[in-house]
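Problem: given the chain below (230 residues), write out its structure.
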Amino acid sequence: MAGRGKYFELLDFPKFAFPSVVGMDAAQTANNLIERLAGGGFMSYSMIWPRLEPIVGGYATESFITTEFCPYEEDWKNDALQDVVRLLRQHFGGRGRWYRHPQKPMKVLGFWFKPSIKGVWWVDGQAYAVLINARKQQRLFPEHIRFLARGVHELHCIDDPNDPVPLIIDVSEQERGKGRVLRAYEMPVEKAISLDEFDEAVRQFLKALELAGVALPTDAIDVIDLFKKK
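Solution.
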């Protein structure tokens, strides 16, 4: 049965894409999906997102972090959560205001698709649509950033009258064993991949999901519209 309760988000496009997110091959990406989806995940960062307002506001003290972010029995998992929170606290620095994105996952062709942003950050008179990569082992490269920026723009910025700028915050490990590094990329759409490149990447990824038995087939003319809130 297509979907099988699987959840995906924009970050999964570069994660599973093969050989690359721009120039993706559906068949090779499907093989990658089949191989890697079987393993499942080790942990979730989802408990961070409802608590971003105090983190952005500068109220995430060490006591708050160690008390609020310790749901696992394994210390390394709690340490991972807390490391992400500390880096986010460092970036936001108690500046501006945070507006949480209210949208829940939506059903797309038999699978669930999560919102691409965690919220909108207003600071210094500018709104930013914020995508956060908390995955330690998924380092984002320049092509990934440009892809994600286009996706954030198309799915979350175009219809927003506040005209937010895509902001990609990456707290992954840049070198294995060297620890997480905070990198933030303010990426206006002019610096992102083209709309045609993004459209083709979405089509190839949907085809890969279909071949992997995760998604239903589609003949939609506008595949990007499938991922927009109706």
